[in-house]
């Protein structure tokens, strides 16, 4: 790889035309989103159209948990979906699942089968396309080749994928006009342990549903006008941030290709400091790619609502409409997959790493989480007067209690080697998990705690009727309409903020699956709600339904208990770090420390008691996360060594040699070579120091193979290897700034940011 290759690729990137796709129908009219939305999904509507009524009725009973899926129903569904898929060009099917790798997995099986017929003693083989109920319900991938954390050994290879009936099947377009039928599935071992992210998410959702229903039965009067709630589910809206860079330039960066982030490189003079990229005009190539991506996602039933430039150069975001959490997780993983594939078609590369470029904003995956009933009620809707909405207050305080008791567990849920580079930086919340409620809700909780009326003037509003509409802003321009101001400002520094009728878990990393952090959140809320439910039961005595006074008494008790977790200020400030320590809130900076919180008694007991994790599953999860962290860091270290030894140091040697040769020639003709000699003297100690740091990093990398315990390995990577890598990078980046550009082979930040 040479300087010429870099420059040629930069020039080529500037001449690439946007890819054109046809989104019109046969008449040339552009198709609307509603026309294509869900067209590749075998939805309930499609099932009701293609299945016999008794079969569809039986399946709906199974979805409600009233019966298991029998063979007759499974066979009928399999036949219907096979016919539907083949009509759309499908030749294969796959059980699509989520192993513990933050990605998805799939093994394609053909619909092809062979049937033998005998004519006068001679066999004739006929090809058929078949798909049975047993093939639909489960498949058998090799379990030993996926992370299991010691639950499975290599010779214990059997594992099962099982159709998740609540997630609809869908078709993804393949090459050459073919297609693949996807069957969303869970992944379990031969003994039934969860080997995936989805199984535990489903468990946590069921636990939370059961707990909420038990609580609602204690506080709600049931009659014809107010029927009993039969189902509660979590909702999720996942904002996905990512970077897009030119694919040609990406191929010249070994660090980006291998690790997902730049291990070398300094900021250009202009990057994000003018704050002009955020919500700016989307570049043409990027808009073409995103438009095609949205079209593909619409066919898959993924409801993308928003797209925009993010803060950093070459950074963007897409966000969907809220859905049931399990569906939202599937759709987010599909969004990442489609973005990846479509970007390649446009000669772009999508980067989901939380911090691909040092010095500018990293990427998160903001999880907007709430709970809803089968009657369409959002349980986190405060209503016009939240002080009178005791149901809302009970759930609100239960969530505060969950975050207070298990904030370190939530921190473990978003920990990774990549997210560590983002958390605590200038654009992301620190490792301290706290909750922002806003001035109005804070005043409501304070008033209840102090047993006094709510003072809305204390929230900064000056009207008693602002509970519905907020204040009105006068813009002093006659042609502009009056603007209604929300009751509470936003706090973008908070890792867990209430945003009107939901909580936004902002600390989740951009490349991780949301399954694990949402599983931990569901479990913690179910546990705290169980505790508050028991407190309410004691308070209400023999009553069948708790009185208002009973509910207020418990709410008031838990408002007092949860005050330490509420914080309304700047989470980025040093003052908050000191204040959080006084409150007893943990500040977990590194992932290995966070992972250990999984096995803390209070967290492990809660996860076991709720039934979300078994002992073996929890221990295995800990080992998987520790091992992955260590491997991620060591892969980065080896990549950095290769780049410096093969490219950076040779470039420095060449530059120094050229300067020395030039200085010698200048002196020969009787001129002063002080300038050249000064540069050589400044570079030489840097080069020597870099050689020393490279040798130290090599020794650390070699010692890595001698460590067997995964916990020790993770801490070794965190405490020894990462600082050594940082020392190498500082010197390499100095050389990038100070040697001739013609000798530098790697595309620089300026080129990576601007060439799209």
Short synopsis of the structure:
Residues 91-192 form the GS beta-grasp domain. The chain is an alpha+beta fold.
List the SSEs and their pairings.
Blueprint (H helix, E strand, L loop, with lengths): L2 H12 L18 H4 L4 E2 L1 H7 L2 H11 L7 H17 L2 E7 L11 E3 L1 E8 L2 E8 L3 H5 E2 L19 E5 L5 E5 L5 E11 L8 H22 L12 E15 H5 L2 H6 L24 H16 L4 E6 L5 E6 L2 E2 H21 L2 E4 L13 E9 L16 H24 L21 E2 L2 H11 L16 H4 L2 E2 L9 E2 L11 E3 L4 E3 L9 H26 L7 H14 L12 H10 L7 H6 L4 H9 L5 H54 L5 H30 L6 H29 L10 H6 L2
Parallel strand pairs: 2-9, 16-19
Antiparallel strand pairs: 1-8, 2-3, 4-5, 6-7, 7-9, 8-9, 10-12, 10-13, 10-14, 10-15, 11-12, 15-20, 17-18, 19-20
Helix pairs in contact: 4-5, 7-15, 10-11, 12-15, 12-16, 13-16, 15-16, 20-21, 20-22, 21-22
Family: Belongs to the glutamine synthetase family.
Pfam families: Gln-synt_C, Gln-synt_C-ter, GSIII_N
Protein name: Glutamine synthetase
